[in-house]
Each structure stands twice: as C-alpha cells, then as structure tokens.
Design goal:
By secondary structure, the protein is mainly alpha-helical. The protein has helices at residues 3-21, 26-42, 53-65, 71-88, 114-122, 126-138, 142-146, 180-199, 211-214, 249-263, 271-284, 289-296, 301-304, 306-310, 321-327, and strands at 153-154, 159-162, 171-174, 229-235, 242-246. Helix 2 crosses helix 4 (71-88), helix 5 (114-122) packs across helix 10 (249-263) and helix 6 (126-138) crosses helix 10. It is globular, with a radius of gyration of 23 Å.
Length: 328
C-alpha cells in the first residue's frame, strides 16, 4: 500500500469527525464526503494539501460544463471543499475568498390548487397520508414533520412546536383540528411500539447535540419518541446503536409520486410542494404575509414574498389589458 492509499482513509475519517463535531446532518455528511472523494479522484488522487484554487475552480467548472449540474449542486460541492480546507485541513488560503458561487436562478415554486391537493390526499392512505396532510396543514418541511417528537405536539393548545428547523431555529405552527384525532391515534400506536421496545431492551431514541448526556433518562422517555416511528429497529450509522428511527422520507416520496399519478396531476409534486401550497392558500384566504412568515419559519420576509408572485399579487394585482377590453 502506497502513502496516498494509506492516508486517504484517515482524511475521510477526519472529515467525518469534524462534520459530526459541527452537528451536520447525516445527509450532509454523505454529500460532502461524496464531493470530496470526487474532487480527489478528478485530480489523480492527489492529496488536497497539494492543490488549491486552480484545481477547485477547474473541478467546479467541469461540473457545470460537462456535468451540467444545477447551480445549487455546484454550490454544495463548493461548500464541501471549503469545509475540507477550512475545518479539516485548517488552511485559510487567499483563493478561498475569490471562489465565486454559482448564481441560482430565481424560480417560482410549484403550487397545487386546493382541488389538486384534495385529489392528491384522497389517493393516499395510512401513515403516509397522515404525514402528507400534516405537511400541508401546518406548512412544515418534510424532515420537520418526520422528526416530530411526541412532546412537541400540544393537543390542548392546538399547536405544534417545530424544533431545530432550518437555521437551527424553533417556531410554533398550528395544529389543524381535523388532524387532532388521527395524530392522537398515531401517538397511541407509538406508545405501544415504544413499550415493546423497552421490554426488548431497546427504546432509546436518538437525541441531538449531546442531550442524551445532559438528560440521561430522556432517550427512553416517551415524550422524546418520534410521532411517526419506523416499523423496524435499525443500526444508527452515526454511532452503531440499534434503535428505532423515524419513518423513512423515501417512503413518503414514493407514496406522493404514486398518488400524483393516480390523481392525474401533471405537475411535479414533492413533499415541499405541500408546504408551498400551504403558504399560497393562506395568502389566497387573506392572511397577512408576516403571519405566514412566522408559520413557515422564514428568517426574512422577502423569502415569503415569493408566494405573492405565485398569486400575481406583487405589489398589486394587475388586470391584463386584453381582459379589460373584453369587459368593456
């Protein structure tokens, strides 16, 4: 084994360790490791210390020109490489500040009409139907819904506390009255499942940011369990512990795709489409933009204002001159 082969595993182990120290998600960890691996392979397996701005820019250019990747994908690759140099290798080089991120094109979100949403939900069943209804009824992001803990559903106040949302922020959103009974049933099923796990010697759920050390009993308490637990126990890739995770997001994505086809909806639909539709339909109902901003958890109201463009209400509604002539 040559020197390059010997040190490559150590590099990736250190990248993985640093990502976990900074509390990056497992998804981000896998993505960053993938980009770093591709960068090294694209440069003849040279160690990153032997490369710099020229190689990074060439790699990103190849992604855009030959790979024809989206701007967001190119920026993710850049973020992975900057993390490698800054956080792992400890190299603050002048060229880092000169690397230009790809400009993401401004795109309007895909939004379903209220009739299309109802048709989509009518073609779903079981737990995935309940999760989809929850995402549309609350405006939560996909992983916010799947990671929902029992203690954060307040049935008395008809509200949900969304923990550690995008940007690490907490917020409150509404709990639709029509979902109270189904969610209570789901919580009861989770309670029974958790009781069986405890009897079998398991039942400790994953907790973020070392909370398990701060509150040793919390992982096994029912309030910390997921509202939508997975059907089977699995080995956690982060620490090798066998535990029950939450419902897999791929399961919901497949269910939404199948329902879209059965409902005859030609638009591309994902779990995030339900969030976009939630915001747009609230605007249509006359709710103010600041209220919707708080429910969605947007840091800047400008992000929320994109839904006014979906409604063609940017500033004020505009009537086409063609339609005004027809009315005249």
């Amino acid at each position: 084994m040559d020197a390059k082969q010997a040190r490559a595993p150590r590099l990736f182990d250190e990248v993985r360790r640093k990502l976990r120290v900074h509390h990056y998600s497992l998804r981000t960890e896998r993505a960053y490791l993938g980009w770093i691996r591709r960068f090294i392979l694209a440069n003849g397996r040279r160690h990153p210390r032997e490369m710099g701005g020229r190689e990074v820019e060439h790699f990103l250019s190849q992604l855009a020109v030959q790979g024809k990747v989206a701007a967001s994908t190119q920026n993710q690759a850049l973020s992975a490489l900057l993390f490698l140099y800054r956080q792992v290798l400890g190299m603050e080089l002048p060229w880092m500040e000169d690397v230009i991120r790809a400009k993401r094109p401004a795109r309007l979100p895909v939004v379903l009409s209220q009739g299309q949403v109802q048709a989509l939900l009518a073609c779903m069943e079981g737990r995935t139907a309940l999760v989809a209804r929850l995402l549309y009824g609350t405006g939560m992001r996909l992983m916010e819904g799947l990671r929902l803990r029992v203690k954060d559903v307040d049935f008395a106040r008809n509200e949900i506390l969304v923990r550690n949302g995008k940007g690490g922020r907490d917020r409150r959103t509404l709990l639709p009255a029509s979902l109270v009974a189904p969610l209570q049933d789901e919580v009861q099923r989770a309670r029974i499942l958790h009781g069986g796990d405890l009897q079998a010697g398991f039942g400790a759920v994953w907790l973020p940011h070392a909370l398990a050390r701060k509150y040793p009993n919390a992982p096994t308490e029912f309030g910390w369990q997921y509202v939508f637990p997975a059907l089977r126990l699995a080995v956690d890739p982060l620490d090798g512990t066998t535990r029950r995770h939450h419902l897999d997001d791929a399961t919901l994505s497949r269910a939404i795709r199948s329902a879209r086809l059965r409902a005859g909806i030609d638009k591309p639909v994902s779990a995030h489409t339900l969030r976009h539709s939630f915001a747009t339909h609230l605007l249509e109902a006359g709710y103010d933009i600041r209220t919707i901003q708080e429910l969605l958890g947007h840091k800047d109201v400008a992000t929320t204002q994109i839904y006014t463009h979906v409604l063609n209400r940017g500033g004020r509604g505009v009537l086409s001159p063609l339609d005004s002539q027809a009315r005249g």
